[in-house]
Amino acid sequence: MPATTILASFDEAVPIRTDPIVEDPKAHISGPSTSAAEPPKFGLRLQNFFARISVSPLNHSRLRDSYLATWEETRSLRLEADRLDPHTRRFAVLDYKRPGVIKPKEFNRPLCGQEQLAQRISAAGNISTLFSHNSNILLKQAVNYSFQYQTKYIAYFDWDTLLLIYLQDAEGINGGIYCYIELLTDRSQFRRALLGFLEAAYQSQGGHGRGGFMGPLELEDLERISSLSHRNPGTSKLITEFPLEQKSRLDNKAKFAGLKAKADTHPPTFTLHKNKKPESKVSLLEQHQNFKMASTGRSLHFSNQFVISCGTVSLDVKGSKVLLIRWRRTGEYVLPKGRKDIGEPLEQTALRETFEETGIQVQLLPVAIDTLATLPSSMDLPKAVTEPIAVTQRTTQKGILKIIFWYVAVADSTAIPEEGTQKEDEDFENIWVEFDNAASTLSFDDDQKIVKAAIVTVRRGASPAS
Asked: What is the pTM of this model?
């Protein structure tokens, strides 16, 4: 058998398994956390997506020039052997399944293409999930893994099928509306696709690159730039043609394609066209300036593109307890918060939403924090303020920017909550937790960090607002 380079080995087929398959193997729910998890309603099918991402980590001369041994031993796994907590920062979950558990036919109905996505999303409110039988259990397990290990990248392999899942909408144990799924049965594609999947997962956690998931449309745009870019004979202009409707996506993604603008007498241009009719020309220098805005943290959102919410870390200082709420539908432990009403001050929103979700009246607690808020000329520097202790931001599945201002508040853990304050779609349970256990009880990293900061600040000394 001839020697194979490391690079070439990623295109070799995985050996065929020889052990017999149990007839119609079933996936099983192993615990209450998996049972409580809600799978996505449907999936967006990826085609040859993760294999393309593998090009970057494989682009190394040592992989082209180094060789493997001339044999490869196929090993049979006859029992489950989990590796527990190998590292504190996980970026993906890989789960080996019994042969035959992944049934490709079960994914035909739940998966759709990009052209059907809008229609599927509009109809999502009328369905629970399109995943059924084994595929339903596998997706429930994936959502539970995502919640437990704080990663949206879950891979399953049963030797005959490789299932790669990106849970973009998952929050807690709710899988959201849809996820990305690539299903592979071609054994020659397994190695490269899994490598690309791990590369995407690693970069999403910071990695050594840009960070974050690059979706299929983004990757297609960048490949389109690469394949259509050409030098226009007789000029110094780099001309790249693409449909006008793709411009908004390219505005944010072209910087990852390595396009760089130079301010010369003939700046490069994008030629935009729609139905082959020229519409306009946008200088690459202008594009670069837009990219620079994005890379330095600047962004623009109009009034219909963002929502402001406020919440509290409500503390019983004497009792050393924190007020949390448990959402009965999902089992998640969170801090009380909610959306700002029109004309309502941020501080009032935080107090009102806390009362509505818990039935407990709280007051803002002045705390000794560093703040960039300006000081009026008529005021001496206070030792404690009621400014927000933190701000969190996230983008919803509909692309809306959600900004949440967090305040420290004081409350009485012995007070009897007022009943009937929650809205119809809310089903929260009050939980008073000791200071030392609060962070570990909360379900989300941001909430944990905010609570820790509030407790540290209060332990330095504070007094209730008058």
From this structure: 0.49
